[in-house]
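Hi R.,

Here's the chain you asked about this morning:
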Amino acid sequence: MNSSSTDPVISSISTSTDPVALLTSLKAVPEKAQLSQIVGLEQLGETGWSVLMEFLFEQREGLMVGSLPNLAAGKVYQILYRAESPACANFLQTHFPHGIVPLRSQTNIDYSPLQKLLAQQDFQAADKLTLEKMCELAGAAAMQRNWIYFTEVEQFPAIDLQTLNALWLVHSEGKFGFSVQREIWLSAGKNWIKLWSKIGWKNGNTWTRYPQEFTWDLTAPKGHLPLSNQLRGVRMISALLAHPAWTQP
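And here is the predicted structure, written out as tokens:
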């Protein structure tokens, strides 16, 4: 189905007040169109929130067995998370107390603070915390120096990297994450110069200056975030993008 603003199903959101019809319309379209409809439902206030809660509740069973939520579910969670509504807050606390992404960790690291920042779309703070969590993965020495050797990245548990990636992916409508950067890197023939340009880390011969020249919202180029300690050269990100985590289920 066409996901443009002229689509009759999408256009009907602004005039329909029947929650059942709205939910049926939302579930009937592909994910890309769902993202557009979700924005329209947010604008309806309480009526739209009730539809979004029902939509997200239907995702709950799959999440309980560890499956990754789709991007539409991630968008819905973000809207309900920031809604100034006791009903939405109670719904999330009851059914998604730990967020929407399963926070798996082989090393018992708590990723819930990162999930909260990403749900709030505070990408700059989330980027900083991502580095802190990766240093935590690497151990006490990395935490003290606040950066990571490429040899430490090679020892990271796949589960933890997959969790970090899933958090960025789900809370950015699929725009940010290590797997996104890896896909761009591979499509560029593993050419680092092309990668830097495509993801906005370099303009010609000039590196993007941290933090003021980076884009901390969804208008950024695809793969722009997280920064992955990029100022310390190519070996660290090379180890990250070549990690077995991206080829394991």
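One quick note: The beta strands are 202-203, 206-207.

Cheers,
M.
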